[in-house]
Design a protein that fits this description.
The protein has about 250 residues and is an alpha/beta fold. The protein contains 8 helices and 12 strands. Bound molecules: nicotinamide-adenine-dinucleotide (NAD).
Length: about 250
């Protein structure tokens, strides 16, 4: 399977390239897209815009795009993918409501895999958190996430995903971001706390506490390769699928 990496020069783009160059999941690197190509000496074809990508990587010359760029790139990315009829793994986070609507609309024409976290372990964490929130109806819940100091969006897409999933079993849940000031917490509040420091790859913890016990569910990513490999697994999954919007839960059902 031939893959184009959008966000080619970034931290995650480089991890995907590394995994593809090793032939991870039987896939290969077809090329990249990045508005700020950093390595000029590369032999790999890299487009600096989606217009250039249309010429460099036309319809039928590759099988899937993996996107680890910036949420604001999503309109151009989806327009290009629709034009060439290519499936897209959108691994970028921090999308606005209107960008999220664009992703749903594009999934009516092409297969799209969209997950704020490409780790299977995080998909397990999401399931466990939802189960615990339902089974402990009197527990107060807080979410803490930690990432490296270069991360642009806060809270992380994964923390938002955890909140959204918990809300399906706690319909009155209200997100409270980085609590400050005076006053008691309301039972339905779910605090979401974002820590940014050093080179932390990614940690997510969901804490549930009743007056008599506390459960802490925590996932720690040790290596960015985890997300790169997950995105390539998602691309292999997407390659077999018809148009539509898919996520990690669909892979776990497979
Ligand atoms: N889903 C996951 O599992 C997961 C894991 C890690 C990071 N991420 C997300 O992936 C994204 C990238 O993270 P990173 O740490 O590699 O960031 P980064 O800043 O190191 O890299 C982003 C790259 O995208 C390029 N870029 C920016 N705008 C672009 C555009 N319009 N078109 C093409 N390329 C563009 C930049 O030049 C840069 O090279 C972030 O949104 C991050 O939150 C997701």
């Amino acid at each position: 399977m031939k893959i184009i990496v959008s966000g080619y020069s970034g931290y995650m783009g480089k991890e995907v390239v590394k995994a593809l160059e090793k032939g991870y999941c039987g896939s290969e690197l077809r090329g990249g897209i990045d508005i700020m190509l950093k390595d000029e000496t590369t032999d790999i074809p890299v487009a600096r815009s989606f217009e250039e990508a249309e010429a460099l990587f036309p319809k039928g010359s590759f099988d899937c795009i993996i996107d680890f760029s910036h949420h604001s790139a999503v309109s151009g990315l989806l327009a290009y993918a629709r034009k060439v009829g290519a499936p897209v793994v959108v691994a970028t986070t921090g999308h606005t409501e209107s960008e999220l609507s664009e992703i749903s609309a594009a999934a009516k024409d092409i297969p799209i895999f969209f997950s704020a976290n490409m780790s299977v372990g995080v998909a397990v964490l999401v399931k466990l958190a939802k189960t615990a929130a339902a089974m402990l109806p009197d527990a107060e819940i807080e979410i803490i996430e930690k990432h490296h100091d270069r991360k642009l969006d806060a809270p992380s897409g994964t923390a938002v995903m955890l909140f959204d999933e918990i809300k399906t079993v706690r319909p009155n849940a209200t997100a409270v971001y980085g609590r400050s000031g005076h006053g008691k917490r309301h039972f339905d509040d779910i605090g979401i706390h974002a820590i940014r420091m050093g080179n932390v790859v990614g940690e997510h913890e969901v804490i549930l506490a009743t007056p008599t016990e506390t459960i802490s569910l925590k996932h720690e990513a040790h290596d960015r390769a985890l997300f790169a490999e997950g995105a390539i697994v998602a691309a292999s999954f997407l390659y077999k699928m018809d148009k539509g919007l898919y996520n990690m839960h669909d892979i776990m059902k497979d």
